[in-house]
Amino acid sequence: MQGGYVCLAFVSLRTDNGGSSGRGTEQAVTNINHKTYAMNAITPMKWWKTWIVRVFFVILGTIKPLQKDLVQLSFIHFARWVIIKRRSFPHVVPGQPKEELKYDYLLFFSNFNGTWNQYIDAFSAVLSRGLNAIWRWSEKFPGSVPVTPFKQYIAHCQFDTDYYYTAYPYATTNDVKAAHRVQAALEVLEKDSAGQSAEDFARSYLKFVLTVQSDLGETGKAPVGT
Amino acid sequence: MANQSGSVYGLTILSPICYDKTAETSHNCAIRMKLAAMPRDEFSPFAKVSSTHLARLVVMDDVVYVGAPSCEEHLKSQYLIFETNFDGDLDTYLSRMAREIPEEVDAVWQHCWGYPGVKNVDAFIAYMKKCQVTTTFFFADVNNKTVQQTLIALQTQAAVAEFVEHAQGLSPSELQKSFASFLVKLRGAPPPVPGRPGAGGPPRIETKMKWASKNLAASMAGGAQ
After folding, report:
1. Which residue of B has its CA nearest to A68?
2. Which end of chain A is more exposed for a tag (fewer CB within 10 A), N or C?
3. pTM (two decimals)
């Protein structure tokens, strides 16, 4: 009888993990949803340096080839930088205390695949010039190379996500891009092979398989350590 | 437009959180408890607002002090950050939140200053826009496909992988016939569900090839005997 009570208590604890009848709440790690990590960071900037960062972002947004390295790293679904001026924190009702700040703040939100360490390592190794151009205007930024003080700085400025949702939790950015290539190739095959003889279709099909063979990798659960 | 990349909108909202020193549970704690209990898969409220690619909710307690010689300062309010990436325009998205997930929106945002509720959708949209901060730079790796297009592509990818494996060795006429059936089955498949883990993943591909680890293990065990 005692063992039965212990068993019931264990079951109760398991199904109480996050509530909501236990559906979809099995993961307790809120920064991560399967293969994607939600990172948030905030850094202070002296107000008179903010315009420099804005100019850099305008240039980055206008001259697309400057984003080449970021695109080629191919592990970020979405990322954004948000500058909040020291007097621009939302003030919605008179009763709310008004912020009195000396610094402007640069918020950074990223949705990436892989571990935090891999992400920062890749940023440091591949995007150091771009990162320096963005964050050198933040107070006490040590530079993105060498990587150790950079990681210490980011870890200090980072804060955790409390809730994270993704519509395609088992798919990385590369999976998404590969899937769209397969979809496009299949549509071409379907269109081009209409009315073909069996032999001609076999040739078209082989061409299709050769085109998409490297895009047919399996999606699935994230590996340990993600 | 800074908030937009291709067809994807990057919305960032900072809603100031109420502070009530007489409350038994502080508002920021109540938000965190609610978020911890909210499902994150296909039962997530954001799965119902099906144009959502990725979304997060974060309670930001304070700004950061990076050390001398910079000055230490603190926020007077905590902020609920809502960062989301979705298809379409802002008004439609906020309207969908108010109409399709009113309970969840109420449960979270009721702890924020000036929150008007969702019964008056226009007032809700106006409130959220008042809390919106403009994105300075928004990067979207895939910015020209909707959520549904992406989910269908992932479903197709899985189905094609399975078909390619099973179609090996077929004669041209068998292959053509099989492909036609495959297309009919694919087009008739139920639409993939946002937020569901594994919807895009192909089933385990069975193979009789000797190099496959399970077959190798079996043949080695047979040899040992």
Report:
1. B141
2. N
3. 0.86
Contact (CB<8Å) A173/B63: no
Contacts of B201 in chain A (CB under 8 A): 170, 218-220
Mean pLDDT rounded to a whole number for chain B: 89
Instruction: Tell if the CB–CB gap between A220 and B60 is shorter than 8 Å.
Output: no
Q: Which of A4-18, B6-20, B203-217 has the lowest mean pLDDT?
A: A4-18
- Residues 83 to 122 of B: which have CB under 8 A from any A CB? 83, 85, 113-114
Helix (H, G, I), strand (E, B), or coil: what is residue A77? strand
Domain that holds residue B33: 4-131
Same domain for B30 and B93, yes or no, is yes
Rounded to an integer, the average pLDDT of A1-17 is 34
What pLDDT shows up at residue A1?
A: 39
Residues B106 and B180 in one domain: no
- Check: CB of residue B83 under 8 Å from CB of residue A41: no
Residue ranges per structural domain of chain A: 32-159, 173-215
Is B174 in the same domain as B65?
Answer: no
Based on the fold, state whether residues B26 and B125 are members of the same structural domain. Answer: yes
B140 Cβ contact list (under 8 Å, min separation 6): A77, A78, B5, B6, B8, B10, B85
ipTM value, please give it: 0.87
**What domain count does chain B have?**
2
Put simply, the chain B residues between 133 and 192 with a CB less than 8 A from any chain A CB are 133-142, 145, 147, 149-154, 156-158, 160-161, 164, 171-173, 175-176, 179, 183
CATH class of A32-159: alpha beta
The verdict on B125 and B159 lying in the same domain is no
